[in-house]
């Protein structure tokens, strides 16, 4: 389907930035390192949380009160309303989804977080942000580093940093989605709305959908696609609410019954690895194969007995793109990968 574009904060001067630094020192719990802890997020919007299932419909309500590209604007988002006086030029992002989003809109952020994956910055985006400064990790933001960059916009989410919103919004106008990844398209449009790039966002999403539709028409038969990811101490099968689940649905590709769920993912044990079987298996790890249990699983007794493995229809993929990308640039690369593997 083709798309069409359709709490007030004061301006932030030097005195405001100084006050923000003082507030951080007093209340952020940063300590000498200037980092926060993983309790900064909101578990209600995590997998299994009471607000997870409504994230897509709630995010779709967010946006600006003016025409595309017009400033000043008041933006409604997950944490209320934020006034953005002029088009932002110094943007800090707090997760990989926001990073993909702003780069997809042609904007390079001045501050970015690192991840605990195999690469600290998603490999497919690393060259584009080689000059960006670190603001800590996704799990432990360094608020002093954020403030030092003097941003004029911060983009993040309640899932990662809800409890830090008061401090962040003292540093610069701050816009939060409910959670990264789900729903990635709505999150992308929210970021575009904060940046005044609504028209560009529509163009990007329509180009993505054209590419997904073309892929679906070219894949022979009706193969069911299984998505398997190894993480430290857990194994996940990804559902329809994940980035790749949405991509497969947009392309009209089928899923095995146990993954055709309106959720981000379902967890299985290593003893139940057979539940990952399907016509095709795409798998990866968040971290090294040794640390996540991937190596042990692939060398164990179950893997070689899976029908997809016996048929040669199994492919290891780039975790940075398939599961950390969470935006249109990553989604487009996933479509390229799927075409490579599924269209003979």
TrEMBL record:
Keywords: Signal, Transport. It is found in: Cell envelope. It holds the Pfam family Peripla_BP_2. CDD domains: FhuD (cd01146). Residues 1-32 form the signal peptide. Gene3D superfamilies: Nitrogenase molybdenum iron protein domain. The keyword Lyase does not apply. PROSITE patterns: FE_B12_PBP (PS50983), PROKAR_LIPOPROTEIN (PS51257). Residues 90-344 form the Fe/B12 periplasmic-binding domain. Belongs to the bacterial solute-binding protein 8 family. This is Iron complex transport system substrate-binding protein. The lineage of its organism: Bacteria, Bacillati, Actinomycetota, Actinomycetes, Micrococcales.
């Amino acid at each position: 389907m083709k798309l069409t574009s359709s709490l007030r904060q004061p301006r932030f001067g030097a005195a405001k930035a100084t006050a923000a630094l003082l507030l951080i020192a007093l209340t952020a719990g940063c300590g000498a390192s200037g980092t926060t802890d993983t309790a900064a997020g909101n578990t209600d919007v995590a997998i299994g949380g009471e607000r997870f299932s409504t994230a897509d419909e709630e995010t779709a309500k967010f946006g600006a009160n003016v025409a595309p590209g017009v400033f000043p604007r008041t933006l409604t988002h997950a944490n209320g309303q934020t006034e953005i006086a002029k088009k932002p030029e110094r943007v800090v992002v707090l997760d990989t989804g926001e990073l993909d989003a702003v780069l997809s809109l042609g904007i390079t952020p001045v501050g970015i977080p690192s991840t605990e994956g195999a690469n600290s910055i998603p490999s497919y985006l690393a060259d584009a942000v080689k000059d960006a400064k670190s603001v800590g990790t996704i799990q432990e933001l360094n608020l002093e580093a954020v403030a030092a960059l003097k941003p004029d916009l911060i983009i993040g989410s309640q899932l990662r940093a809800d409890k830090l919103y008061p401090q962040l919004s003292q540093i610069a106008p701050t816009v939060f989605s409910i959670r990264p990844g789900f729903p990635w398209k709505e999150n992308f449009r929210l970021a575009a709305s904060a940046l005044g790039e609504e028209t560009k966002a529509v163009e990007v999403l329509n180009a993505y959908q054209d590419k997904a539709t073309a892929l679906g028409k070219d894949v022979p038969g009706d193969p069911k696609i299984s998505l398997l990811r190894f993480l430290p101490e857990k194994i996940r099968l990804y559902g329809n609410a994940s980035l790749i689940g949405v991509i497969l649905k947009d392309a009209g590709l089928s899923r095995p019954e146990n993954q055709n769920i309106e959720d981000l993912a379902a967890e299985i044990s290593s003893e139940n690895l057979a539940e990952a079987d399907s016509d095709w298996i795409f798998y990866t790890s968040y971290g090294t194969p040794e640390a996540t249990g991937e190596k042990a699983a692939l060398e164990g007794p179950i893997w070689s007995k899976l029908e997809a493995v016996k048929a040669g229809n199994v492919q290891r993929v780039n975790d940075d793109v398939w599961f950390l990308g969470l935006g249109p640039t990553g989604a487009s690369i996933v479509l390229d990968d799927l075409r490579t593997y599924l269209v003979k």
